[in-house]
Amino acid sequence: MGRLTSWSHVLSNERKKPYFKALIDRLNDERMTGKIIYPDQKDVFHAFRLTPLEEVKVVIIGQDPYHGPGQADGLSFSVKPGIHIPPSLSNIYKELVSDIPGFLPPTHGCLESWATQGVLLLNSILTVEAGRPYSHSNLGWEIFTNQVISVINQCSRNIVFLLWGLYAQRKTILINPKHHCVFLAPHPSPLSAFRGFLGCKHFSKANQWLTRQGKSIINWTPYLSVKRHHID
Fold first, then answer.
1. In the UniProt entry, which residues are flagged as the active site (predicted)?
2. In whole angstroms, how large is the CA radius of gyration of the chain?
C-alpha cells in the first residue's frame, strides 16, 4: 500500500454532512449559553493531531470523555497532568505492571506519549457536558467516529484494536479481522476489571503482533515530554 493521506483529507466529506454541521452548531450554541463542555474546544480533536492516520498502529476505543473539571484532554482514558488518575486508568496501570517487565506506574495519567507513538486513543463520543456522563450520546459523534474506524479498517493493514467492554466491542462489525488484529477484554472499570481485564496481557500481545508485522513496538510507559503534530 502507498502512503496514506491525512485525516483532513479522508474525513473532509464526513465533516461536510448535515449531521456533522448540526453537531458543531449544537456544541457552539451550548457553549454560548454557558454550558460547560469537556474537553476544551481546542482539545476535541486532540487525538487526531497527535496520531496522524499514516502513523496509527494501535487503536484503543473509549466511550465518552471524563466529565469532571480539568480531566478530559481529548484522548480516551487519559487525563491532563496534575489530575488525579481515574480508577479505570489505575487498573490499566495495574495490568501494565503485571504484563510489561519493569513497568513502573507513573504518578500522572497523561497518555500523550502513547498517542505520538501511533496509539489512537479514540473516544466514540468526543464531548460531554460537565457532570453528565454520556450526555452527548445522541448528537452524532458515534456516526463520525464509526467513520474514523471504517477509514482505518479500509486504508490501513495490520492495526491492533484493543476493545475493552461491551460498548467498544460493538465496533468489531466495522473491522475486518482478516486485515487487522482485534483483542477483546472486559472494561478496566473497577466494576468489571476483575472479570478478565486484569490478566489479559493486551499490551505485550499488541507489541508481539507489531513485531511480527515488522513495526516498531510501543513503549507503554507514559512520559510527559512529547512532540506535537500540526493539523493539516
1. 64 (proton acceptor)
2. 17
What type of residue is 219?
Answer: N
Q: pLDDT tens digits for 25-81?
A: 999 999 999 999 999 999 999 999 999 999 999 999 999 999 999 999 999 999 999
The total number of residues shown for the chain amounts to 232
pTM comes to 0.94
**Residue type (1 letter), 17:** K
**Torsion from C-alpha of 44, 46, 52, 58, nearest 10 degrees:** -100
pLDDT tens for each residue of 87-117: 999 999 999 999 999 999 999 999 999 999 9
How many Cα atoms are found within 13 Å in the side-chain-facing hemisphere of 228? 7
Largest pairwise CA distance in the chain: 52
Mind listing the domains of the chain with CATH numbers? Answer: 7-212 (3.40.470.10)
- For residue 39, is the peptide bond before it cis, meaning its omega torsion is within 30 degrees of 0? yes
Q: C-alpha 58: how far from its chain's center?
A: 9
Q: Is 64 a catalytic residue?
A: yes
b (16+ CB within 10 A) / e for 185-217: bbbbeeebbeeebbebebbbebbebbeeeebee
Distances in Å between the Cα of 9 and the Cα atoms of 5, 202, 231 are 6, 31, 11
Per-residue model confidence (pLDDT) at position 213: 96
Q: Positive or negative, the Cα torsion across 95, 96, 98, 103?
A: negative
Query: What letter represents residue 63's amino acid?
Result: Q
Please say whether the beta carbons of 105 and 96 come within 8 A: yes
